[in-house]
Write a structure and sequence with these properties.
Blueprint (H helix, E strand, L loop, with lengths): L1 H21 L6 E5 L13 H4 L4 E3 L5 E3 L2 E7 L4 E6 L13 H11 L8 E5 L2 E5 L7 H4 L27 E7 L2 E6 L12 E5 L4 H9 L5 E3 L5 H6 L4 E3 L4 E7 L8 H10 L2 H8 L5 E2 L6 H4 L11 H8 L7 E5 L3 H16 L4 E5 L7 E7 L5 H11 L11 H12 L4 E7 L2 E4 L3 E2 L15 E2 L9
Parallel strand pairs: 1-10, 1-11, 15-16, 15-17
Antiparallel strand pairs: 2-3, 4-5, 5-7, 6-7, 8-9, 9-10, 11-19, 12-19, 13-17, 13-18, 14-18, 20-21
Helix pairs in contact: 7-10
Length: 453
């Protein structure tokens, strides 16, 4: 009997010790390496660490309180009131006011906004629109509408990005952005003391640093996911959240819808997926992924070169420029698309980086919102397209998307996941709806003595 009691005590003690070793605890520096700009919009890793939105979107596609605690609509969704959370302060100590929120939103969205006007009224922010705004709470959770301080108490713009988030800017030195825990964050203090974001950093160098303990989180581009698995990296991957699409100018030599439709039919999506992106993600002719709607299969992804040539009707537009921002993979994808278009009779040359005079642009759209109507509106807004009114239900959503696609100004090609390789020291790391890591809730295991890099 005594032996059984001793064994039971040992098992309980071992379980308590194991829980104590793995449960989240405070402290440490989390080191992250990325290839892009940590402040880029959308998707910059530093943005959601330093800034908050009025709302956030949960896994059930619903808007939840963040800097706003409640909201209501009037006049058939033409007017919305958002009541701010009381007692919140920016990281410099300035109070969060409705005036500060309005100033931030006017700065981040000076035109072509989901609303027509915005103004402050006490502790409330009021949005009005010429059109109904049924999805405004979900849209305000997007990266573009995160709230930043635009003016300090002495009437000057802040030197660094200042928000209300879990971390605040500490220093930028030698390509390393250091963020310190915000001890007074309204949502509670994060677990780690600091986050170091090294950027820009080539993927090859990121993986080397992960292997020798100089980084805890690094990027895994979609085309390298299989290689990362072969190297036994611990990979955390999202569902397909990045839409790769070809945007076509609606004026000039491509004003004719038949020419744009010809281009759409010339796309060889399977080659892009299989050759360039190593079969990661999936081909799509829909702006929204299948897991959000269930109807994406109704839009054909098949290439029809003969029909493309027929629609062109012997018209040969002047030479066209296809701009492709980003890394070498985007350039390879652009070269493949240019080849498809040449086979259909278009003279296309690829230019790297942004080009104001480019008739064609290879673009990536981050799906930050998992509510279908709001996601479609967000993509259309990012592309500068006029969105038709979206009614309730799947049929109305399908009809609205069909109307956008029927203009042939935005040609969906692929939906790709976002992925990261993670050190074994990192605990409780999850990806947010946009596919970026939620570092505010992550914690670190202590390094064994003598193992510090």
């Amino acid at each position: 009997m005594l032996r059984h009691s001793a064994i039971s005590f040992f098992l309980v003690w071992a379980g308590i010790c194991a829980w104590g070793r793995t449960r989240p605890h405070y402290g440490g520096t989390l080191r992250v390496e990325i290839a892009g700009d940590p402040w880029q919009r959308p998707g910059g890793m530093a943005r959601r660490l330093v800034l908050d939105g009025l709302t956030r979107v949960d896994a059930n596609e619903s808007a939840r309180p963040a800097l706003a605690v409640e909201w209501n609509s009037e006049n058939q969704d033409h007017r919305w009131q958002f009541k701010l959370r009381p007692g919140v302060h920016f990281q410099d100590g300035s109070p969060l006011t409705s005036i500060a929120v309005v100033a931030s939103l006017n700065t981040s969205c000076p035109s072509n906004c989901p609303w027509s006007a915005i103004h402050a009224a006490g502790g409330t922010v009021i949005f009005t629109g010429d059109e109904a705004m049924p999805n405004l709470p979900e849209l305000l959770a997007g990266d573009e509408y995160l709230i930043a301080l635009t003016m300090t108490s002495d009437g000057k713009p802040p030197e660094d990005v200042v928000g209300t988030g879990a971390f605040q800017v500490a220093v930028l030195s030698n390509g390393v952005l250091t963020l310190a825990a915000n001890e007074n964050c309204w949502a509670g203090r994060p677990f780690v003391d600091t986050i170091e974001i090294r950027a820009p950093r080539a993927v090859r160098d990121q993986w080397l640093d992960l292997g020798v303990g100089r980084a805890e989180i690094v990027e895994v581009p979609p085309e390298l996911m299989r290689q990362a698995q072969q190297q036994r990296l611990a990979v955390l991957a999202s569902t397909p959240v990045t839409l790769l699409a070809l945007q076509i100018a609606e004026s000039g030599s491509l004003e004719s819808p038949l020419l744009r439709q010809s281009m759409a039919l010339a796309m060889d999506r399977s080659a892009l997926s299989n050759v360039i992106f190593q079969k990661q993600g999936g081909v799509t002719a829909s702006l929204l992924p299948a897991n959000l709607t269930g109807y994406s299969f109704l839009f054909s992804v098949d290439r029809n070169l003969s029909k493309a040539q027929e629609l062109r009707g012997g018209i040969t537009p002047p030479p066209l420029v296809l701009a492709a921002p980003g890394d070498g993979t985007m350039q390879l994808a652009a070269q493949r698309i240019a080849l498809n278009l040449r086979e259909a009779g278009f003279n296309v040359q690829v230019a790297s980086g942004a080009n104001q005079h480019a008739e064609l642009m290879l673009r990536e759209f981050e799906l930050e919102i998992n509510q279908p109507q709001a996601a479609l509106e967000s993509i259309a807004h990012s592309a500068g397209l006029t969105l038709p009114a979206i009614g309730q239900g799947d049929l109305a959503l399908f009809q609205s998307e069909s109307e956008i696609l029927g203009r042939y100004t935005l040609i969906p090609l692929l939906y790709l996941p976002r992925a990261y390789a993670v050190s074994g020291r990192v605990r409780d790391l999850e990806l947010n709806p946009g596919g970026s890591p939620d570092l505010a809730d992550a914690s670190l295991l202590d390094l064994p003595r003598g193992d510090a890099p």
